[in-house]
């Protein structure tokens, strides 16, 4: 699986460099929508797993390689996003609970605010209310 993932990553990079493959979003788009608190609008027509983790599923792959690609994608999505969101959400909750009179600032990558089971979802399930602070607005 590691060799397969490396080969697919290299093939994607070569396709990008040759102009045969285009990323469905640009970093600037992510930043702009993140600042507006509207990150989900950029992913309405895209698979959220492509935003933060490698995507190895390719329509040109043979059937047996598609299965490998799906297994790797599931693994990355689960390990790099879902489990990390759970860990970070618990750590935030624990810090807030242990120090109720203290102020905190938490920063997370944009990928942790997209799809299901985001850091916000984890904290909301714990009873916290999260509000977006727009760019330029004082905290």
Walk me through this protein's architecture:
The chain is 53% helix and 0% strand. Mean pLDDT is 77; it is low at 43-53. Helix 4 crosses helix 5 (119-125). It has helices at residues 2-18, 27-36, 49-52, 63-98, 119-125. It has one domain. It is extended. It contains five helices and no strands. With 139 residues, the protein is mainly α.
Task: Give a short summary of the structure.
This protein is an all-alpha fold and 139 residues long. Helix content is 53%, strand content 0%. It is built from five helices and no strands.
Can you tell me the overall shape?
A: extended
Query: H/E element string?
Result: HHHHH
Please compute the radius of gyration using only Cα atoms: 18 Å
Fraction in helix: 40-55%
Structural class: mainly alpha
Mean pLDDT: 77
Largest sheet: none
Number of discrete helical segments: 5
Number of strands: 0
Give start-end ranges of low-pLDDT stretches.
43-53
Distance between the termini: 45 Å
Looking at how many chains there are and whether they match, the oligomeric state comes to single chain
Number of domains: 1
Strand residue percentage: under 5%
């Amino acid at each position: 699986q590691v060799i397969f993932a490396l080969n697919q990553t290299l093939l994607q990079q070569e396709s990008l460099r040759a102009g045969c493959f285009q990323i469905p979003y640009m970093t600037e788009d992510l930043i702009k929508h993140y600042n507006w608190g509207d990150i989900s609008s950029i992913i309405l027509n895209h698979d959220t797993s492509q935003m933060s983790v490698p995507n190895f599923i390719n329509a040109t792959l043979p059937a047996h390689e598609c299965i490998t690609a799906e297994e790797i994608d599931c693994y990355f999505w689960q390990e790099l996003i879902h489990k990390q969101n759970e860990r970070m959400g618990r750590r935030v909750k624990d810090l807030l609970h242990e120090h109720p009179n203290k102020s905190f600032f938490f920063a997370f990558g944009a990928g942790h605010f997209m799809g299901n089971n985001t850091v916000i979802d984890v904290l909301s399930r714990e009873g916290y209310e999260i509000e977006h602070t727009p760019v330029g607005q004082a905290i």
